[in-house]
Amino acid sequence: MRQSQLLMNTKRDVPSEAEALSHQWMLRGGYMRQNAAGIYSYLPLGRRVLRNIEEIVRQEMDAFGAQELLMPAMQPAELWRESGRYGVYGPELIRLHDRHEREFVLGPTHEEVITSIVRQEIASYRSLPVNLYQIQTKYRDERRPRFGLLRGREFLMKDAYSFDKDWEGLDRSYRIMYETYERIFQRCGLTFRAVEADTGAMGGQGETHEFMALADIGEDTIVSCSDCSYAANLERAETAYPEIAPDAEIEDRNALKPVLVRTPNVRTIGELTAFMEINPDQVIKTLIYRADDELVGVLVRGDREVNELKVKGYLKAESVELAAEEEVAEATGAPIGYAGPVGLSMKLLVDREVAALSGGVTGANQSDAHLTGVRPGRDFSLTHTGDFRNAAEGDACPRCRGRLQFHRGIELGHVFMLGTKYSESMNAGFLDADGRQKPLIMGCYGIGVSRVMAAVAEQSISGGRLVWPMAIAPFKVHIIPIAVKDEAQMRLAEQLYHELASAGLEPLLDDRDERAGVKFKDADLAGAPLRLIIGRGAASGEVEWMGEDGIKLPLKADEAVRRAREAAASSR
Question: What is the rounded CA–CA span in Å between residue 409 and residue 429?
């Protein structure tokens, strides 16, 4: 491509609405332009990067026998009602009606559609297993689109679906896809971690993992062990079980019943610890939640935070949210800030860390009052004890007792074992070898293709340059003659351009009559990993080579071509 013909209008100033580096640089470099909040057009430079990522995805998917198809973005709403997800998905699901008042949704994902297709096309175990995928635009009505392509309302996604006759088959399909994702992200040049995750609105009956790109701008927290391979999303992360003191020791220290203490205008943990001169880990915090149609109390230590997804999973609830102020007052007899487990008439979910305490301070279910000396198991039930809190940095690892550490991450992909969640609700089955009807065993697997582009950019900006990995760069080599009016420079530039193009290296030739400074600044935005700068040495066939590391050295033209071909070949 000749740069004079390329639609690449660069900007020198950072757009005010762009927070993430990737967002700033891709707007400045002319990779994309915003049409509305969270909705972008991909200009030629951005489309080239996306196309290269898509090609890697297709190569790796096709390599193990997955088959590509294309499903409609507009889906009948009755399919979502059939699966039971119409009400669960929430306001992110974009709904619309056609002229006949038939209701549709714009697909955020395609489990319902693929299940409806496969139940028509597959009837026998002889047709299994099968893995189908597509690369297509998805739609989610994000409340707050931000960070450019990292959280948008319209985005490009690869979604795949496996169908097996049994759980052993699903396990094989899942492992194949897991390993395929590792290869895809490695080829895209990403630094990433695979972590245990929560199923969320997707649901499922088995393992699920997220693949996270490490980046400070990431909205997800990755919890990993300092000593072993354990890693999980904060939503899913566990900790080692605390040790519980022997019963005799607890009994000695808790001989007295709870004592009521007046605590006027003391509502928060900070106010309570200051008033009573205690540490937060001596407080038992009671939070009242509405889980579907039921009020429940969740108990965690005063220095911990409730993990609502763990609560939701334990209760098998569709929705979990903090109870309204009036609900708390009616249930406890006191305003928010004074709830406690003693005498509370509702199901109590007790974090195992609380269950291990020998005693603690709680709300008294009275205004301006707390209880001291409250003993778990004696003063309130431990029937529903489990892991209901967020992990914290420094906690013991649940696998090896190493220490947990936190990182920020960008979700790139997610793999799920769905099991029969959709096949049973949508009556998608097959006949086994004995002629019995059985539900299909499903898995689903997604990669945010446009997110991958943003994540790679986020990791590839350094030293005032964006340097794309060779495998997905919009152009592999940027040829920059300093003076286009110099015949020797342009003759050598044209020679290199044709040689590199014939070798499939997708060169970009800056044939514009611009100052050298303008060309170099634009080259920093175009992000080609290799640059061949042609200046005074052109007459003797010499160029200045600049690699991904930014180091420059003089080379003969034929040597520069040889090195460029080797670099491109090693990235495949």
Answer: 38
pLDDT digits (tens, 9 = 90+) for 518-554: 999 999 999 999 999 999 999 999 999 999 999 999 9
- 114: tokens are 């693929």
Report d(CA 515, CA 506) in Å as an integer: 24
Give CA–CA dist 86/65, Å, rounded.
Answer: 32
* Contacts of 14-20 spanning 24+ positions with Cβ under 8 A: 18/148, 19/146, 19/147, 19/217, 20/147, 20/148, 20/150, 20/217, 20/454, 20/458
Q: Is CATH 3.90.960.10 what the domain over 247-386 is classified as, yes or no? A: yes
Q: What digits encode the pLDDT tens for the residues 315-339?
A: 999 889 999 999 999 999 999 999 9
Q: Kindly report whether the global pTM for this prediction surpasses the value 0.85.
A: yes
Tokens 């319209």, residue located: 154
Q: Among 2.40.30.30, 3.40.640.10, 2.60.40.10, 3.30.930.10, what is the CATH number of 14-189+419-457?
A: 3.30.930.10
Just give the CATH number of 475-570: 3.40.50.800
Beta strands across the sheet bearing 259-262:
259-262, 369-374, 360-363
Contact 260, 309 (CB under 8 A): no
CA–CA dist 455, 20 (Å, integer): 10
Domain residue extents for the chain: 14-189+419-457, 247-386, 475-570
